Amino acid sequence: MLIPKTETGNVGMVCGDCAKQRKADTNATAYEPEYFVGRFCLLRFPITVPAGPSEKKKPGTERMWVQVVGLAQDYGEELLGTLANDPVYATQFAFGDVVGFNRSEIQAVQE
Predict the structure, then answer these.
(1) pLDDT tier at 55, thresholds 50, 70, 90
(2) HSE-up of residue 59 (Cα within 13 Å, Cβ side)
(3) Helices (H), 1-111
(4) Would you say 106 and 24 are in contact if contact means Cβ atoms under 8 Å apart?
(5) What is the pLDDT, as a whole number, of residue 88?
(6) CA gap 82, 49 in Å, rounded
């Protein structure tokens, strides 16, 4: 199945202070990992937020959709997926990159 590129409107940025307070919007750990295969999951990716000339850059997160393609076998991660957004700030990632993650990192699931 082809993964359509999503609109930039699906991309969100959260400042570092807010990211610490924000909890996942789903109870994803209540589901078995197999449940997520084929679904899109919203994850947070680390970024450095641009700051003004007299301020230090702050860590933060960019939210992007990942389509789950299978179960992870290594590195203590549960799921593997491909990035379905073009990052705006998390430029170390690119559309189509394979990422591993755990259910506890899921912010939302597109049913």
Answers:
(1) low
(2) 6
(3) 16-21
(4) yes
(5) 86
(6) 24
The whole-number pLDDT of residue 58 equals 67
Mean pLDDT (the chain) is 79
Reading the block at residue 11, the tokens are 């991309």
On the question of pLDDT at 20 being above 90, the answer is no
d(CA 29, CA 33): 8
Question: What gap in Å lies between CA 71 and CA 52, rounded to an integer?
Answer: 42
Strands (E), 4-106: 12-15, 40-49, 58-71, 79-83, 98-101
Q: Who contacts 54 (Cβ-Cβ below 8 Å, separation ≥6)?
A: none
Give the integer Cα–Cα distance in Å for 5 and 82: 11
Domain ranges of the chain: 8-110
Q: What's the rounded Cα separation, in Å, for the pair 71 and 81? A: 9
